[in-house]
Each structure stands twice: as C-alpha cells, then as structure tokens.
Amino acid sequence: MDESAEEPKSDNKEPNFRQHTLFHIKVDPGLKDDNGDQLPRPFTKNQMRKWLKKVRWENNKAEKRKKEKARAKERRREARAANIDLGPSRKSLKKRSLEKSKSNTGIIIDLSFDKLMIEKDRYKVVKQILRCYSINRRSETPLQFYVTSFGDKTKNDISRHNGYENWDITFKETSYLNEFPKEKLFYLTSESENVIESFEEDTYYIIGGLVDHNQHKGLCHKIAVEQGIRHGQLPLNKYVNMKTRKVLTIDHVFEIVLRVCEGVPWKDALLQVLPTRKGAHVCDTTSNDGSYESDN
C-alpha cells in the first residue's frame, strides 16, 4: 500500500455548527443581591436560572416590541375594515394629556417597602403602577401622580418598560416627607378608624406600594401614626358587600380615588372598579373588615 496515498475525502460533509456557550450572549444584565450589589456570573442552578431569564429578556426585548407593534398595526387595520372603533391612539392620548388641567388632588405611591418583597411581588407593584398610569392618562381630570422612595430595585424592575422616564408620573428617590408638607399628606390605610367621605383639594393621598399577601398587615397604618400623618380608610363597608375579603390592589385604590374625584358617586365608583371575582354588590349589612392594602 502506498503510504503517500491520501485517504479519500468523504462527500458527506457535516455542517460546521458553531458551539454556542453562555459566554456568547449579546447582553449580560447580571444579577444583584438584596443590597443592590452586582453578583459575579452565577454558578448555582437557581442563580443561573434567574440570570438566563434576564439574558433572554434583554436579547429578545427589541424583537418582541417589534412584533407587538406589527400585531397592533394589523389589529387596527382589521378594525378599520370592520368599522370598529378602537378609541384614541397613544399619540393622541399623549397630546390630550398635555392639554388637560390636572386635579388639585394628588396620589403618591410609597415604594419604601422594597426590602419586604421578593422579586415577583415587586414586579406586581410595577405592573399595578403601569395600570394606574394608564387609567390616569385617559381621565379628563387626571390626578397629580407621584412615586416616592423610588429606589434601585424598583428602578431596575420598571426599566423593562422602555420610556418610563417620559410617563406623566413624577418619580422621587426620596420619601414623601422630604417632598411635601406633612399637613398636606394623607395615608390611605384600611386599619384606620377614620372613614373618608370625600377627597380634599391640595391634598396628597398615599397608597402603600406593597404586595405582601397580608404578611405585614397594619404596617401602613403604623407608619402613618408614627410619622404624625393624617390617615383614613375608604368607605367600602358603607356602600358594598363582597363575597371575598376586602383586599384591593394598588390600582383599584387609585382608580376609586380617581373616579370619586371625577364626580362619580361612591357606590357607582366602587361597583365600577371592583373586579367581578370580588362579588361586590350594594351593601345590605355592615361589616368591620375593610382592608385593601396588599392584594396580589
């Protein structure tokens, strides 16, 4: 056998696939510990799962937004063809909101509870703030809207929503005590013995930005008392009965305040806002349970 003879080349060449590893990612959002400090590239299974979830989100964010815009455009085209009114566009809503005169009443969402919530519950708070923003910008008399104690954790969570800095919300990193006169503050808390009958002008009503599944019941009331801030609860018991516990989300409380400030009667506002799963109906008996701070 001739040793110099070359081995015949195979015609069945396998494609040269590139072996991708975790180090071939385009964006590395990293992970942060409870103190907000950057963690090294993770090694435990649990950390790796969280980290890869962040990576996938960052890498697919632009493409996902592009597909969402295309779907929305197609829905508008189909609606026009079927003579269906989809309401005002985002662009027209933004223009209208700039022309509206805001109410003299303000709402503050207090985000000083970051350390009491797990990541999933912080995401729920952000989602509810987004809902409040959407409700408020569609109102003819929107409330003044503030978010205080806007820390790094929530800032990181809300940054998933591109352009949040341009929302018609005033974000403050400090406490409401550093931003507003104490005599103009009013904490909405279900444990208060005071029942609200109307909302005052030139007053800022605080909603605790806390989703805790009732683990810290009464915390907002305790804070209001310690800080010497006026406090009160919504008159749920006076107007409606519900099949479930009277636990409302941040956006439910926000919308109830907004509707009443718009001039909607309490009973109508409550029945309009409360979800059907709560089984709300016109009050026929009196109950002492009126909590609404920590729904999920």
From TrEMBL:
So where does S-adenosyl-L-methionine get bound?
L188, G208, C220, L234
Residue ranges with Basic residues bias: 63-74
Gene Ontology BP annotations: tRNA N1-guanine methylation
Reaction(s) catalyzed by this protein? guanosine(9) in tRNA + S-adenosyl-L-methionine = N(1)-methylguanosine(9) in tRNA + S-adenosyl-L-homocysteine + H(+)
Q: What is the lineage of its organism?
A: Eukaryota, Metazoa, Ecdysozoa, Arthropoda, Hexapoda
| Bias kind Basic and acidic residues: ranges | 1-17, 26-35
Protein name per its UniProtKB record: tRNA (guanine(9)-N(1))-methyltransferase
UniProt GO molecular function: tRNA (guanosine(9)-N1)-methyltransferase activity; tRNA binding
Annotated transmembrane regions: none
> Which EC numbers characterise this protein's activity in its record?
2.1.1.221
Show the active-site residues: D212 (proton acceptor)
Query: From which organism does this entry originate?
Result: Danaus chrysippus (African queen)
Q: Per the record, which residues fall in region Disordered?
A: 1-20, 26-45, 59-98
Please provide the record's keywords in A-Z order.
Answer: Methyltransferase, S-adenosyl-L-methionine, Transferase
- The SAM-dependent MTase TRM10-type domain extends over 93-281
Gene3D superfamilies xrefs: 3.40.1280.30
Q: What GO CC terms are in its UniProt record?
A: nucleoplasm
